[in-house]
Write a structure and sequence with these properties.
Elements lengths: L1 E2 L9 H4 L4 E7 L2 E2 L6 E2 L7 E6 L6 E6 L12 E3 L5 E10 L7 E11 L6 E7 L4 E6 L5 E6 L4 E8 L2 E9 L7 E6 L5 E6 L4 E8 L2 E10 L3 E7 L5 E7 L7 E7 L6 E9 L2 E6 L5 E6 L16 E9 L2 E10 L3 E6 L5 E6 L4 E8 L2 E10 L3 E7 L3
Parallel strand pairs: 1-30
Antiparallel strand pairs: 2-5, 2-31, 3-4, 5-6, 7-8, 8-9, 9-10, 11-12, 12-13, 13-14, 15-16, 16-17, 17-18, 19-20, 20-21, 21-22, 23-24, 24-25, 25-26, 27-28, 28-29, 29-30
């Protein structure tokens, strides 16, 4: 196994212009290895790792003291298409009145990727527990799901100015709206309502966000949601009653009249995150498969799984399943689609896979990160 080297200093402007950036959020304060989320006392600051895939193995630069969180889908990072800015959600904080517990935060950091080195230039306040985020393909606005508030906020992006313009209620706070994905043309979005088990349909017209009455049926409790690059399909993966039961990817046909759920594809147990390739031909899903249970739990497994699905018309089918490290949080394709990155939370590593057509292989490259990797994103072009 080869360990890729990390560059701690010397970040150059050429990296931010490369078009091949992936960002990992690494959290120090919440540990998952006991089978539940436990806040660690006196944890060091959280960090980010920026990967430059203009070469392989990618160069890695670590940025310290930028709060982020494992509580919420691993999509609580978003990068503008020009790769000049990144939004980093701080979803949770340690509860000062209850050791070992956490409370919602309400901060999104604005990271200037064009600075040398990259730096946080602003912090904006949202509703409680900003979680999954999505930036429109033209870079003009973003949406964020505020999980502990039941709302979605529309955020305008004008150069390096980032401002919350509107917040709409989608559900009750206890329904846990978790993620949101914007269609390529910027006129609609879907949001996962975890506890109630559906995707909400949102519209964006003339800069105004609205909630449609349409609710899409999905398998289990939806978490991460994505829309295909051609705008035809919305996808989400949900957990049912837990390991060892098999869970499923839900496929929604957005071009049907009316749009509707058209398929459920079994993928394995405990999907944490999914991502679609830049060309829309593949979906990668990371599955806990018991790796998130304590060592003495009979359901515990040492490794998790990475499932690869290939597009077949208006649905997907499983074409490959590979082992991956324990408690995989985020998964992302490199911007050129040639590599997959998987976050392995307790071992503090990013595992790198090569993508060739519909075949994915483990490269053996492991990138160590300063804390437990918890959120992961590449720019959507």
């Amino acid at each position: 196994m080869r360990i890729a080297g990390a560059i701690l200093v010397g970040f150059t402007l050429a990296l931010s212009a490369s078009g091949q950036i992936v960002i990992s959020g690494n959290e120090s304060k919440i540990d998952l290895t006991s089978g539940t989320a436990v806040v660690l006392p006196d944890a060091p600051p959280d960090s980010l790792t920026i990967l430059d895939f203009t070469s392989f193995p990618p160069e890695a630069t670590h940025l310290d003291n930028i709060r982020n969180s494992v509580i919420g889908p691993p999509s609580n990072i978003a990068i503008t298409p020009d790769e000049n800015l990144a939004l980093i959600a701080s979803s949770t904080l340690p509860d000062p009145d209850k050791p070992g517990a956490w409370i919602p935060d309400n901060i999104i950091h604005v990271l200037d990727l064009a600075a040398n080195p990259p730096a946080v230039i602003d912090e904006i306040k949202t509703d409680a527990q900003p979680s999954g985020m999505s930036i429109a393909r033209d870079g003009s606005f973003a949406l964020v799901a505020n999980r502990a508030a039941g709302t979605v906020s529309l955020i305008s992006i004008d150069g390096k100015s980032v401002t919350i313009e509107q917040t709409v209620k989608v559900c009750e706070p206890e329904d846990e709206i978790s993620d949101v994905s914007i269609a390529p043309d910027g006129t609609m979005a879907v949001a996962s309502v975890n506890a109630l088990g559906y995707l909400a349909l949102l519209t964006v017209q003339d800069g105004t966000l609205a909630v449609s009455e349409r609710k899409f049926s999905v398998y289990g409790k939806p978490y991460r949601c994505v829309i295909s690059p051609d705008g035809a399909l919305a996808l989400t993966a949900g957990s049912g009653q837990g390991t060892p039961d098999t869970d499923a990817l839900t496929v929604i046909d957005l071009k049907a009249d009316p749009p509707r759920t058209v398929d459920y594809v079994p993928i394995g147990s405990g999907p944490e995150s999914i991502e679609i390739s830049p060309d829309g031909k593949l979906v990668a899903a990371v599955l806990m498969e018991g790796s998130n249970f304590a060592d003495d739990d009979p359901r515990h497994e040492d490794n998790a799984k990475l499932t690869i699905l290939a597009r077949r018309g208006n649905t997907f089918e499983v074409v490959q399943t590979l082992p991956t490290g324990p408690i995989p949080e985020g998964v992302a394709f490199s911007p050129d689609g040639e590599y997959l990155i998987v976050q392995c939370h307790p071992v503090r590593e990013l595992w790198l896979y090569r993508v060739e057509g519909e075949t994915v292989t483990d490269t053996g490259e492991r990138i160590p990160v300063p804390a437990m990797p918890s959120s992961l994103r590449a720019a959507e072009k």
